[in-house]
Amino acid sequence: MADILYSKIAKMPITRKYQMSSLLAAILLLSACDRTPPDHRASVTLPLYTDGDADNGAIIYQDACGQCHQLNAGLNKKGPQLMNIYGAHAAQLTDYTYSKGLKQSEWVWDAETLDPYIADAQKVMTDSKMLSNPMPDAKERADVIAYLSTLREAVPVVESEEK
């Protein structure tokens, strides 16, 4: 069998051999690559936001936000995942591409920054990637913020590979 394969390769034009070797090298390189691990925000340290109803906020979140935002690290959609968002610095995840304005904002996601951003992201930050419909109802926004403040998950411990 090896003799047949060798004779076929020996008869190939040189350009075809280079194409095949390039393809093989690419396959080997790609198969050796590790997937970039998902990024996590630090654990939430702010107290729960209690000026809204978190249970109602969960319902509103599913309807208004869930299409673009996930709650699991590494599962960014159109928008970044939102676990541990409350109290986190804006544009913090390395596995999501944020707008220039958000990266430069130095915002911390709390009620004071989330409320106007959820109300109308494009009005607050013209280059915002968040293209959702404005949420004019202050009670609904407070409920969503209360829900976001409950999204708390311990950051996984990553063991060092150094020995």
Could you explain how this protein is built, in words?
- The chain is mostly helical and 163 residues long.
- The protein has helices at residues 2-11, 14-32, 54-64, 100-104, 111-119, 121-124, 138-148.
- The longest helix is centred in the N-terminal third of the chain and has 19 residues, at 14-32.
Strand and helix layout:
Layout: H1 2-11, H2 14-32, H3 54-64, H4 100-104, H5 111-119, H6 121-124, H7 138-148
Helix pairs in contact: 3-7, 5-7
Question: Major beta sheet, specifics?
Answer: none
Element-level helix/strand string: HHHHHHH
Low-confidence stretches: none
SS-based structural class? mainly alpha
Q: How many strand elements?
A: 0
Rg for CA atoms: 24 Å
Work out the strand percent: under 5%
Mean pLDDT, to the nearest integer, reads 85
Enumerate how many helices there are, as a single number.
Answer: 7
Overall geometric form: elongated
Cα(first) to Cα(last) distance is 44 Å
Helix content range: 40-55%
